[in-house]
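Page 47, continued from p. 46.
Same chain as before, 275 aa.
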Amino acid sequence: MGRVSAGELDTAPGTAPIGTKGRHHAALDAALDCVIAIDDRGCVTYFNPSAQRTFGVTASEAIGRELAEVIVPPSLRDAHRRGLARYLQTGEASILGRRVELTGMRADGGEFPIELTIIRLESPAGPGFLGFVRDITERVKAEEELRSAHRRIALIANEQASLRRVATLVARQASPEELFAVVAEEVAQVLDVRCTAVMRYDPGGTATPVGAWGESLPFALGVSWPLEDTVAAKVIWRTRQPASVDVANFQSEFAAALLSLDPPVVSWGSSGAEI
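Result:
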């Protein structure tokens, strides 16, 4: 457990005399990280300038108030209070002396990710806690952008592999049945969906499933449906754009068939392509 002696640490801003106490206070005031001290009641006793800028709360507004009411989001306040009470009763703590990532709250109620380290503070004025807080919004954003980039790279790799498989079938003049079945499977794998169907638009206002993959779809391959009875295929035909629709909004045998699956297919998306 981290502890620090604060016999010479003045926690009242603006009152530190010249000497060791003043140097400690000046060092905390100059810290780039937020430095916040609380007593055993959970009330703020020190709030350095960095904390004031980060949270949008002045020292005079923060000191004397319960920390939970100042920088802890409402959804986390009860957990904060329970953790403090448990430590004071049992001495057991899960976060003292460790870096943890939590959520902080600014004065305007906006929430943002923070990195927090807490140590026990021993002082002649009474024990308490000293917290070091860092706004990690930019770091979290950068990490998410990196994860998104990795996902995009993986998706592109999967798409390229799918295209190569389909191109191989075309090159060896596979039958339409085999080709469309593989296209349906590859689309399902790339999009990570339960089932897919390849629909052919026919003269005379009908659409015919010519390939399928995944869970048993409630319609047979080669059986034409009136275009008005289909779901996304009808929207695509009219707009010439990819579409994702809520199946429950359509009143047709095709929509009813999708909803009859267990679990039901409630969203049906498609993209038009010329083959």
